[in-house]
Design brief:
- The structure is a single chain.
- The protein is α+β, with helices and mostly antiparallel strands.
- The chain has a single domain, classed as Jelly Rolls (Sandwich).
- The chain has four helices and nine strands; from the N terminus they run H-E-E-E-H-E-E-H-H-E-E-E-E.
- The strands form two sheets. It has a six-stranded antiparallel β-sheet.
- A hairpin with a 2-residue loop joins strand 6 and strand 7.
- The mean pLDDT is about 95.
Length: about 160
């Protein structure tokens, strides 16, 4: 897959001192969502790490939005995702009399769901790949009903 099809851009620097070869790579990942749900992004991040010739270090993933979030969750049973979406919907209901409604009835609940979850993750990188467990995947969780283009900043620091 080409860089443009992955929606990635890069910045890089290398620090070398007394045999230490520490590199930082930064990129941008754009994820098109189709509405509420979980969108697996681990493979796209692994592809980016491979292009950066990453070895061992850490990947930081930062979502540049306030109505979606990031999580590491089980990747085997889709019922887990459905149950988690139901749980979040119960915690931040659309029928609550929110004051902020200018972007629709699902907007303020999306902000609450984001506040209760994460917009950034740091994951170890081992041998050039995200060091996730067998049943783990990194997901972008879209909290809005309509499709969105979600932008993430990726950063790798390591050897």
């Amino acid at each position: 897959m080409t860089r443009s099809r992955l929606g990635l851009t890069d910045q890089a620097w290398t620090f070398e001192d007394d045999g230490l070869d520490l590199r930082q790579r930064m990129g941008r990942l754009v994820v098109a969502t189709r509405g509420c749900g979980f969108y697996g992004i681990g493979r796209r991040i692994d592809d980016w790490l491979m292009e950066q010739t990453a070895r061992d270090g850490a990947a930081s993933i930062f979502l540049r939005h306030t109505s979606a979030s990031l999580t590491i969750q089980e990747n085997a049973d889709p019922d887990v995702q459905a149950d988690l979406l139901d749980a979040l919907a119960g915690l931040a209901r659309e029928d609550t009399p929110w004051r902020h409604r200018s972007e629709g009835p699902d907007d303020m609940p999306a902000h609450v769901k984001t506040m209760l979850t994460d917009v950034s993750l740091q994951v170890p990188v081992v041998a050039g790949r995200l060091d996730l467990g067998t049943w783990q995947e990194i997901y972008l969780v879209e909290h809005r009903r309509d499709p969105h283009q979600r932008s993430l900043t990726l950063r790798y620091l390591g050897t």
